[in-house]
Design brief:
Elements lengths: L4 H16 L7 H6 L9 E5 L4 E5 L7 E7 L7 E7 L11 E9 H10 L5 E6 L2 E7 L10 H14 L6 E4 L3
Antiparallel strand pairs: 1-2, 2-8, 3-4, 4-5, 5-7, 6-7
Length: 171
């Protein structure tokens, strides 16, 4: 049986809905979360207790909150925690992304001997050693806007051209 023009037309019309279906457009919040970090200039976050400023990659702007507190972990005397601050309407709880700890030089030498991979030195100033530790994986479910944003923040922080540094104020 040879296909008739009418049969061919019907087959094409039946196939059109299947051909028109594709992947849905991504939600706008996902598009916002994947904005390249290179578009945003670095900025400084004041840390009053250390009389210093930390320079962070631009992608960190509005993405965290700071908790500055006394600390005794491994002999440190200060901890400055950076917690992810998602949009409060999303119901995403804040999670720790990075911590900067302050040690005396003598205490850091002891810690470094026993806990070699505990943290990396960020700065040394006035007999103090300032270290940082970051999360190694996003604390949020894979594929969510929060995970995409946290991944961008971490990559910008550890990248080759990162502006991340601790600068002390005079006085």
């Amino acid at each position: 049986m040879r296909p008739t023009p009418r049969l061919t037309t019907l087959l094409l019309l039946a196939a059109l809905p299947a051909l028109a279906c594709g992947k849905p457009e991504p939600k706008s919040e996902v598009a916002v979360a994947t904005t390249p970090a290179v578009d945003l200039p670095p900025f400084q976050q004041e840390i009053a207790s250390l009389n210093a400023e930390v320079t962070l990659p631009g992608v960190w702007r509005y993405g965290y909150k700071v908790v500055d507190r006394p600390d005794t972990l491994y002999g440190a005397h200060r901890a400055v925690e950076f917690l992810y601050a998602a949009d409060t309407a999303s119901g995403v709880p804040p999670r720790l992304l990075m911590v900067i700890r302050a040690y005396t030089r003598a205490q850091w030498d002891k810690v470094r001997e026993s806990q070699k991979d505990l943290a990396k030195v960020l700065a040394e100033h006035g007999g103090e050693v300032y270290t940082f530790s970051i999360v190694t994986a996003s604390p949020y479910p894979v594929g969510t806007p929060s995970t995409l944003r946290v991944d961008q923040m971490m990559m910008a922080l550890i990248g080759e051209r990162t502006p991340f540094k601790l600068t002390f104020k005079k006085g």
